[in-house]
Specification:
alpha/beta
């Protein structure tokens, strides 16, 4: 399935460039273009959108403020002529940050970072841990920290934060919801077993109907997640 894209920018030339790029990529589908956040809000309410290319410095409402106002935002790639907005963009878990003028090469690189959106197959394969050295970067204490995915034991959700438990040392605390973390990880290598826990499948030592043991830690299996766990573990 195609990734449904919405373009939001108050500069018509910038919109034209992005529209041309989207139409040149077979797995992207353009569902709309608009010049401000209010128009974008109307489109988001009217139809499903998987990926939004969002300008930051727009009249009436900044793109970053608009993103914060959405309860269930799509994945976002920020576009702007102002480099100083980059930090704030990544704080909002943006997929990428494109500086104008946007080249086709840089556009394609950003699109390959897009994870699998609900109900659609996005640009990048949803197998980020296919190789032993696969990794993701997470913002921790104002730094981007590299985490090799096959070192992860489990992930614990704590409201707006998660704890990443690894074999390498103490847990890493990341400002990220567990739902957002689940979207970043491969379904073939990680399994959500509870509203508060994701486990690495290869790190499971034992399990029964109620618990899974990972690195001598017993984790509960949530009632609603039990069918999924039974299917994954056979």
């Amino acid at each position: 399935m195609k990734t449904r894209c919405l373009l939001v920018d108050d500069e018509p030339p910038a919109l034209e460039v992005l529209e041309t790029y989207v139409r040149e990529v077979a797995h992207l589908e353009l569902v709309g273009t608009c010049g401000n956040a209010l128009e974008a809000f109307g489109i988001l309410q009217a139809q499903p959108v998987d990926l939004m290319f969002l300008d930051i410095k727009m009249p009436k409402l900044l793109g970053t403020d608009f993103l914060r106002s959405l309860r269930h935002p799509p994945q976002v790639i920020f576009t702007t002529a102002y480099r100083e907005f980059a930090y704030e963009g990544f704080e909002l878990d943006a997929v990428d940050y494109l500086l104008k003028p946007v080249s086709l090469e840089r556009f394609l690189k950003a699109v390959t970072k897009v994870g699998r959106a609900e109900g659609a197959q996005a640009a990048a394969p949803a197998e980020p841990v296919a190789t032993p050295d696969a990794f993701l970067y997470f913002r921790i204490d104002r730094k981007m920290v590299k985490v090799v995915l096959n070192t992860i034991l489990c992930i614990e959700g704590l409201k707006d934060y998660v704890k990443i438990h690894t074999v390498a040392g103490p847990p890493l605390v990341v400002k990220q919801t567990i739902n957002g973390m689940e979207e970043k990880l491969s379904e073939s290598n990680f399994l959500r077993i509870h509203r508060s826990f994701i486990v690495a499948l290869e790190k499971i030592r034992t399990y029964n109907a109620r618990h899974i043991e990972v690195a001598n830690q017993e984790l509960p299996i949530g009632r609603l997640f039990r069918p999924r766990v039974e299917e994954a573990l056979g």
